[in-house]
Amino acid sequence: MRDGMNDGTGNRVVIKVGTSSLITRGEVDPVKLDTLCATVSKGIEAGLAPVLVTSGAIALGRTRHSTLTQDTTEAAQTAAALGQGVLYAALHARFAAYGLETGQIMLTPHDLVAPEHGGGVRGTLDLMRSLGMVPIVNENDALGVRNNDVLAALLSGFIEARLLLLLTNVAGLYDGNPLLGDDAVRIAEVTGPISEVEAVAGGSTGDGGTGGMLVKLSACWIATHAGVRTVVADAMDSTALVAAFRGDEVAGTVFPPRTSHCAAPDLGRLWRAFRNPPSGSVICDAAGQQAIESGRALLGGNVGAIRGSFDSGDVVDIVGTDSRVIARGSVRLGSAEAGAGGRSASALFDDCDYVRIFGG
Ligand SMILES: Nc1ncnc2c1ncn2[C@@H]1O[C@H](COP(=O)(O)OP(=O)(O)O)[C@@H](O)[C@H]1O
Ligand SMILES: N[C@@H](CCC(=O)OP(=O)(O)O)C(=O)O
């Protein structure tokens, strides 16, 4: 095994690979697996310290037991418990052929946004990095199935990665789903607010994927607002990692970082603000906009209009006087309560629990 080749300074990258880029018809696809291992190996040879987040456990588990094909949470969680061993064994064996040792870490977002858990994860990742091991991460689905794009984004902020690479079955974000029509055009870079491209992103039509581009954009929001450059690229392009890290042209979509790395506790705020697409928006007046821009509370009295219907705890956009989205967060009051005239002195977000949008 190659030992201790990563110095851990400025070379950290998180690579996330989706189900359809590892699995074909419910089995680990040897060509896809080898391409992934080659990608990671090339990155390590170029001096990078990758953490790999891989999906595929549920798809692998479902093919091994007919009961687990049922559309229930328990079936998905049990399929993940069954499939994870198969997935990790395949990755471990193939990485060994590249002279690379691996170790498995199962996480939930709470492990990364709650500092009392995160400390332990950090120490493990640090030691694995210093030993030259490739950490292989998946969501701990037995505790609740969510999405690995978002988990990978939180992880990239947590370890202050230089790059989050989302590898999938299409070469980036297109102006329409490329699997549904030949005329979709790839968007090479998203320099403005991500809200401007949300309308072109749809759900998954891939083989076993969950969430589609819309969820990848949630990940892009989180990572770029945590200061991590994010690239969506084709998993079959084994040169994408090194090119994306160096800032060379990649056949994918680049999302430049919106701010410098934020401290670990702020990851909770990013998660609450961007974990789901917004259910609605609140339109604020000039005083409300000023409050948001200076990090103060947005009061119900500074909200002129409400769009959409949302409950307490849902994600909403905060729109300024010039119709631009200026912030996003988990609202404390539902749309009925937050409506004009209601609870005007109440803060709409607990403890200013919103994130200002950068890149506009
Ligand atoms: N505008 C778009 N550009 C690219 N892909 C899109 C777009 N809208 C929807 N998609 C879908 O998103 C899928 C990628 O997401 P997903 O299936 O969840 O992948 P993964 O399993 O790799 O996470 C594509 O295969 C495609 O079906
Ligand atoms: N943790 C799940 C994957 C969930 C997920 O995000 O899937 P995908 O959209 O294919 O990346 C699994 O291993 O099957």
Automatic annotation (TrEMBL):
- List the coiled-coil residues: none
Residues of the signal peptide = none
Give every Aspartate/glutamate/uridylate kinase domain span: 11-233
Tell me the GO BP annotations in alphabetical order: amino acid biosynthetic process
Print the keywords alphabetically.
Answer: Amino-acid biosynthesis, ATP-binding, Cytoplasm, Kinase, Nucleotide-binding, Proline biosynthesis, Transferase
Could you tell me one molecular function GO term of this UniProt entry?
Answer: glutamate 5-kinase activity
Q: What is its EC number?
A: 2.7.2.11
- Residue ranges of domain PUA in the record: 280-338
Q: Which GO terms describe its cellular component?
A: cytosol
At the top of the EC hierarchy, this enzyme's class is: transferase
Entry-linked Pfam families: AA_kinase, PUA
Q: Which NCBIfam families match?
A: proB
Output this protein's name. Glutamate 5-kinase
- Organism source for this protein? Streptomyces broussonetiae
